[in-house]
Design goal:
single chain; 721 residues; alpha+beta; 5 domains; five-stranded antiparallel sheet
Length: 721
């Protein structure tokens, strides 16, 4: 048989028809019975046909190697058992958390009790994350005495979390500075000379002190209300409410003075305006200042230390601009409104500078992650933060950058794509996993790696098992294994890998720090630190060496790669045509199937993975589909006429054209039509499924019929109509 595939280049033209058959009694029986399949539903018949895709061209390149057998792994539990930390490691951990030197009181402790002592002694204000992690780890070890978490915490975890805490502490210090400034400014606004306890204390204490010391009745009442509220109420009072309430108190005082003497009210309003203007700088203006003329008051402000600070540059510029004028109205306008407008500009500029500094940190993290080629999830998280709000940026810096370090490593070698680096202890392998006989999809397990800074070189990386804390991928005698860290320099070197551009031009290649010039490479399913020298058997097979030593970094916790998805990964033409999966894989007895964007793919052990497309798929489903017969090849495009066809088990074919629709041909009629030349014969495409015609069986075509007489020797003939 000669046929052209319905999709693009890369599929074989020959079809090996399997002898396997799936019969459904009463619907599709053996070919000699010629039982008519169920007719398609009327709505399927009436549906507008889908144009056939163009036929494919020449054959694609044959793969240079076959996929190896799925390795039979034998995890070594002892390989991931961590030995207790050394005194040197404990000394370093104690120094890291800033609690003094490690005395015998520390060094004599077991790792479990050492971690509890970290929790007990560490400064919770400066190291809250480290304290919380120490408690979490301690609880794990209490419940699981053989868990290696305590030792891993001493070796690496304490340094990771203490580093995060130091960054967060610097941020909290900045927040505390801004909070102190806000309290200082609020106190000056209401004319309270605040002491250190009031400024450096809590927001709630500040509100209480305002209530106790304020002379303005509305400010006092507002402080009392806020003090009984929560943290948000206290902060809102300090940054917003106190200002509006104080202005109301001032207006009441001015209105009261106006009732006695208008001039007295005007003078009071001018004095209060100057006090308010000074309070913008967190300065409590003495009465002598408020008696000055407007221009001299501005000059007095220019002598303050506060206005010399860079964060008040907009107020400084506005004050100097006002004094360059000889118009008293300009001086007054600065005091009444200009200083407030300039203060808003200063606040906006300072806020923008802080936000830009944070965004720059994210950009730097992103650039390093991109350069590493090993942290695509971190890159994606950084991009999302940069596209988001300042709160998104803050969350990324505090949490997101640490929560996206896990990845999986997938092969790139043709025929072996869809295999992942995996180990549960001891030797490391690549494997697609073994699919369940009952579940469509399942997790591979032991194939997720936390990409951390290199144990021996922070410019490189190490791969920590997500299931075995403290265990890393390392080379040992060039074989790559998952072993627990013993903290030695040799182990750190062995477990450090330096990323390079993929040898195939994409992906990433990982050079061993311990063995420069040797790269993480799979061969026959096993993993080695290899090169292309041919010196060892794992340094050979050079036609696929570059691909074997090139990896795609993908999302963690990958699924087992089923036979359908193995074809999707490894058959470029297939993947290009069917598109991406749009539903999960389904298992029904010995059959697996999955919907893709442009077709549905079916698999059995006998037939392999074959897709069914468009109108042919509709006809197939309407005739009980895989429950009757499975496809033995893909949907192909007819070579000389616009149309498509597909062959199924037990001698069934479905042919389609735009004008005739999709119809089934099988048994003796199909055999006779094949001898005539299929759709290239004078008959053209079928226009109906096979159906009874008196005692005969008949299929109608565009330009004639084929009849079969099962009762009289099985005679079959064609004729024009």
């Amino acid at each position: 048989m000669r046929r052209t595939l319905i999709h693009r280049k890369g599929f074989a033209r020959g079809i090996a028809v399997t002898t396997a058959a799936v019969a459904l009694a009463g619907v599709l029986g053996p070919v000699t019975a010629y039982a008519a399949p169920a007719a398609p539903a009327p709505e399927a018949q009436a549906q507008a046909p889908t144009p056939a895709p163009p036929a494919a061209g020449s054959l694609g390149a044959k793969p240079k190697s076959l996929a190896p057998a799925v390795p039979q792994e034998a995890p070594d539990a002892k390989a991931t058992a961590l030995a207790e930390s050394s005194d040197v490691e404990k000394v370093k951990a104690v120094r890291e958390i800033e609690v003094g030197e490690a005395t015998d009181e520390w060094l004599m402790l077991t790792d479990k009790n050492f971690v509890f002592k970290v929790y007990d002694k560490i400064n919770a204000d400066k190291f809250p994350l480290t304290k919380a992690e120490a408690y979490r780890v301690y609880r794990i070890v209490v419940d699981h005495s053989d868990a290696p978490d305590a030792t891993a915490f001493i070796r690496t975890g304490v340094f990771d979390f203490a580093g995060r805490d130091r960054i967060a502490y610097a941020d909290r210090q900045e927040e505390a500075r801004l909070a102190r400034e806000a309290r200082q400014k609020a106190a000056a606004w209401v004319g309270i000379t605040a002491d250190a306890a009031m400024i450096d204390g809590t927001d709630q204490n500040f509100v209480y002190q305002v209530w106790r010391r304020s002379t303005g009745p509305k400010v006092k009442a507002g402080a009392g209300d806020a003090w009984g509220g929560d943290a948000t109420a206290w902060k809102t009072f300090i940054t917003t409410t106190i200002y509006s309430l104080h202005l109301e108190d001032q207006r009441d005082a001015i209105e009261k003075a106006k009732q006695e003497d208008a001039e007295k009210a005007r003078i009071l309003a001018a004095k209060l305006a100057k006090k308010n203007a000074a309070a913008v700088l967190a300065v409590t203006a003495p009465d002598a200042w408020t008696d000055l003329s407007d221009d001299n008051f501005i000059r007095q402000l220019l002598t303050t230390q506060e206005l010399a600070q860079p964060r008040h540059v907009e107020i400084l510029n506005a004050a100097n601009a006002a004094l360059r004028s000889t118009d008293p109205a300009v001086w007054k306008a600065f005091i009444d409104t200009g200083i407030y407008d300039a203060d808003k500009r200063d606040a906006a500029r300072e806020k923008a500078a802080r936000e830009e500094a944070d965004r720059q940190k994210v950009r730097e993290i992103k650039a390093k992650a991109e350069q590493s080629r090993l942290r695509p999830r971190l890159v994606a998280a950084a991009n999302a933060a940069l596209a988001g709000t300042p709160a998104d940026v803050t969350k990324f810096l505090g949490e997101g950058q640490y929560n996206t370090l896990e990845q999986a490593l997938m092969t790139t070698t043709p025929t072996v794509k869809g295999w992942f680096v995996r180990s549960d202890g001891g030797d490391a392998w690549i494997t697609p996993g073994t699919p369940s006989a009952t579940a469509g999809e399942g997790k591979l397990g032991a194939a997720t790696w936390k990409v951390v800074s290199g144990l021996a070189d922070p410019a490189c990386f190490s791969f920590e098992s997500s299931g075995h804390v403290g265990s890393y991928l390392r080379q040992q005698d060039m074989r790559v294994k998952l072993h627990a860290s013993d903290g030695s320099d040799q182990f750190k070197n062995d477990a450090t890998w330096c990323p390079k551009a993929g040898l195939t031009g994409s992906g990433v290649t990982l050079e061993s720090k311990a063995l420069p010039g040797r790269f993480l490479r799979h061969i026959n399913g096993s993993l080695w630190a290899a090169n292309d020298s041919g010196a060892n058997w794992w340094d050979g097979n050079l036609d696929v060496y570059k691909a074997d030593a090139t990896w795609n970094v993908v999302d963690p916790d990958p699924n087992i790669t089923t036979p359908i998805m193995l074809r999707w990964y490894n058959d470029d033409a297939f993947r290009s045509f069917v598109g991406n999966p749009k539903a999960g894989e389904v298992v029904d007895g010995p059959v697996r199937f999955r919907e893709f964007a442009n077709a549905t793919t079916y698999w059995s052990q006998a037939t392999g993975a074959k897709y069914v497309w468009g109108p042919i798929l509709e006809k197939y489903k309407a005739s009980l589909g895989y429950k009757a017969r499975l496809p033995i090849d893909d949907s192909w495009g007819t070579p000389n006429k616009p149309g498509a066809f597909q062959h199924f088990e037990n001698g069934l074919s479905i042919y389609w054209s735009q004008s005739t629709g999709a119809h089934m041909v099988y048994g003796a009629i199909r055999d006779h039509w094949q001898k005539l030349g299929w759709e290239n014969s004078y008959l053209g495409f079928p226009t109906t499924d096979e159906s009874p015609a008196g005692t005969l069986r008949r299929s109608t075509f565009q330009f004639g019929n084929i009849d079969h007489d099962p009762a009289n020797g099985g005679r079959t003939w064609d004729y024009r109509v």
